[in-house]
Write a structure and sequence with these properties.
There is one protein chain. The protein is built from eleven helices and eight strands. It is an alpha/beta fold. It has an eight-stranded mixed beta sheet, sandwiched between helices. Helix 5 packs across helix 7. The longest helix has 14 residues. The radius of gyration is 17 Å and the shape is globular. The model has no long low-confidence stretch (mean pLDDT 98).
């Protein structure tokens, strides 16, 4: 798989699909890598040029010294687009990826066509919660937090119905680099974009999970109410709605991008 060298980090990415088709960039959630989009990539590459990448600190991308900021992670996306000579792209990000999308929508709208913000919020959790998480993974590793995170990523019903998919997600989480994860926890801890939402003028679809304990539907409604002209859709899922309610998620995003 290819890599690009940014100013201070190496980013692992994949670009696939028809060469002249519109580009869709997919941005992963905290503790995952670009393989979280496998099911969507399979479908989206039929009509779109799909750019998947591992966020700094995740997957095979560089783990540079932290803490990171959401602005820093968003500027990585702009630099990646520049290096690949991609002027404009649709952007779809889940959780942390959605926060990156909000920054891009408010600060680099000229680089975006349409934007999908999934299972995310303008501010998530308190400093205390994130500092505890950072301390735990630095001291005891990713396995110390994996089980409790998996319970928030997927509903109990889905965990019982699709154990292989859940085990795959847990392996991805437990394999994450603890320092990179902690550095991105700090980026989420320090982010509050509530005042910037009304400045977003990019056509936006907000997706929430009906059973998401991390970013519940109320957070999705807040985004949809404050981003002018945005649409809202709710999946029958917890936090990783693109995996738990895969077919509906994929169909909603395709319909929005094609509208």
């Amino acid at each position: 798989m290819p890599f690009v060298q940014l100013k201070d980090a190496r980013i692992h990415y994949e670009l696939a699909g028809p060469e002249n088709a519109p580009v869709l960039a997919l941005s992963n959630s905290l503790g995952t890598n670009y393989s979280m989009w496998d099911a969507q990539a399979l479908e989206f590459t039929k009509s779109l040029r799909v750019l998947r990448y591992d966020t700094r600190g995740h997957g095979q991308s560089s783990v540079t010294p932290g803490p990171y900021s959401i602005e820093q992670l968003a500027r990585d996306v702009i630099e990646l687009l520049d290096i690949l000579h991609l002027d404009k792209a649709h952007f779809c990000g889940l959780s942390m990826g959605g926060m990156i999308g909000m920054w891009l929508g408010a600060n680099a709208p000229n680089r975006l066509r349409k934007m999908v913000l999934c299972n995310t919020a303008a501010k998530i959790g308190s400093a205390e919660i994130w500092n505890t998480r950072i301390e735990t993974v630095r001291k005891s590793g990713m396995q110390a937090v994996a089980c409790s995170i998996i319970e928030r990523w997927f509903t109990a019903a889905f965990r019982a119905k699709a154990p292989a998919l859940v085990a795959e997600a847990q392996h991805m989480l437990e394999s994450a680099n603890a320092e990179g994860y902690a550095a991105c926890c700090a980026a989420i801890r320090d982010m509050d974009q509530r005042e910037k939402l009304s400045a977003i003028r990019v056509p936006t679809l907000v997706i929430a999970g009906a059973h998401d304990p991390v970013t519940p539907p109320a957070e999705g409604h807040y985004l949809a109410e404050h981003i002018p002209g945005s649409r809202y859709a709710e999946m029958n899922a917890a936090h990783l709605s693109n995996i738990e309610d895969r077919d509906r998620f994929t169909a909603e995003v395709q319909a929005f991008l094609n509208s």
